[in-house]
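Lab notebook page, bench 4
Experiment: in silico fold of construct C2
Operator: M.H.
Input chain length: 118 residues
Purpose: comparison with the prior construct
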Amino acid sequence: MRTTFCEYQGMTISASVCIGIGDTAHGLVAVTSDEGRRQRGYYLLQWDEILWAKRNSYKTYDLNGINPALNPQVYRFKSGLKGNEVTFLGCTIVIRIGQRSGLSIWAIWPCSTSTREM
């Protein structure tokens, strides 16, 4: 597992977590601030993860999904990598992330994703 941070003017503006499983590197999670969006800090982190994956002989890099309607800026970035879009359907990831006031808090993600070959 690899965690990277992007700093601008002494402040962390973006961060990401990447992990390699089998022959695939997966970008698990990324966060960015408003300044990170303006400076495109996550773009730098994404490229750094791709280069890390290539240096460590991973065959594919999983971008964890695209949605041109709901997130056109990220879609444009990921599409610009010129890889092959692959769709996986039929599963959902559900993780219990905590409890507050007697209620469980859950995070739910569809497993549909796109993978771009390097």
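Observations: The longest strand covers residues 11-21. Residues 114-118 have pLDDT under 50 and may be disordered.
Next step: discuss at group meeting.
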